[in-house]
Design brief:
Elements (H helix, E strand, L loop, with lengths): L2 E6 L9 H4 L2 E4 L2 E4 L2 E4 L6 H8 L7 E3 L3 H12 L4 E6 L7 H11 L5 E6 L4 H17 L3 H12 L2 E7 L3 H5 L5 H10 L2 E7 L2 E8 L2 H13 L4 E8 L6 H13 L7 E3 L2 H7 L3 E8 L4 H13 L1
Parallel strand pairs: 1-2, 1-6, 6-7, 11-12
Antiparallel strand pairs: 3-4, 3-5, 8-9, 8-13, 9-10, 11-13
Length: 298
């Protein structure tokens, strides 16, 4: 069965040449910075976006691909494939999912299209793309492929530490009163995504406290299908190195790679942030039963 994957450019993968090695159609967001329009990942790399935005006092405008954009892609792919899995940035943040859903409805009866809200952004959405590639490889039935991808959505987790909150306020992720109070008290937010909506889950006063919380967050998980530390520059930061050093003790056999977060994410949280993203490993039935037995014994 020939199944194609479509996504928007909010999906971020740090693996070199990943998009060239896999048959994934990426429909770019359009990002306006200082009056100039860019197509994310086409005219604007993640590092270039962070460099440009670091000099901007105002959050850029991100425009998701339109219904017409998705309709063109779906029409083109449907001529040579049997079905499409279309994976998008959280509907609570960007309009990509809504626009893709509208386009898919117009092709109902012509091609099977599953439009999936990742309820995530950036690297977490990228992990879902990789999960979809595995699902297509491992399953013969389209419904089983889609079920596997939707199941992976439930196993995605992300936390971000944001040091400069200007973009958070402009994007109404933080209120003006919280921003002012935070500045007075010298506290910075840790952000999570609750049902796809970014919001503060905790506040810290120092970068050291933020590192503690990020390490504790990762340590809650016993098994990783995918894990990534996100930062705001190409070469390793002190924050990332500290996280890796701390985790090396608890997870001596686990590699914790790092990478730069993408332009659409930077447009939301700014250019002074760090984060960790996890796709928890799916438990096999015998592992679930063992966990239940352990709980009962306890």
């Amino acid at each position: 069965m020939n199944v194609q994957i479509v996504t928007d450019s909010c999906a971020h993968v740090i693996t070199p040449h990943f998009w060239e090695q896999h048959t994934v159609t990426v429909v770019p967001n359009r990002i306006t910075i200082a009056g100039k329009l860019y197509r994310e990942t086409v005219d604007l790399s993640a590092e270039e976006a962070l460099r440009l935005l670091s000099n901007e006092p105002y959050a850029p405008l991100v425009t998701s691909p339109s219904t017409a954009d998705y309709l063109e892609v779906y029409n083109r792919l449907s001529r040579s494939c049997d079905a499409i899995i279309s994976i998008h940035a959280s509907r609570e943040v960007y309009s990509s999912w809504q626009n893709a859903m509208t386009a898919a409805r117009q092709l109902a009866g012509h091609c099977q299209i599953a439009v999936i809200d990742s309820r995530s952004l950036d690297a977490a959405q990228g992990m879902l793309i990789k999960a979809a590639i595995r699902a297509i490889r491992d399953h013969e039935n389209f419904d089983d492929m889609v079920k596997a991808v939707r199941g992976a959505v439930e196993r995605l987790y992300a936390v971000y530490y944001v040091e400069s909150v200007g973009f958070l306020q402009q994007n109404k992720i933080l209120s003006s009163s919280h921003t002012i109070l935070g500045a007075m008290l010298g506290i910075k937010p840790l952000l999570g995504l609750e049902d796809g909506r970014p919001g503060t889950i905790e506040k810290v006063k120092t970068r050291g406290q933020a590192i503690d919380r990020l390490v504790e967050f990762i340590a809650e998980f016993a098994h990783f299908e995918d894990v990534l530390i996100l930062q705001n520059r190409g070469h390793i930061t002190e924050t990332t190195r500290s996280i890796q050093d701390r985790l090396a003790t608890d997870f001596p056999n686990q590699h914790f790679p790092y990478g730069v977060y993408g332009a659409s994410m930077a447009a939301l949280i700014g250019t002074e942030a760090s984060g960790v993203v996890i796709l928890e490993q799916e438990l096999e039935m015998d592992e679930i039963e063992d966990d239940e037995d352990t709980f009962r014994d306890g």
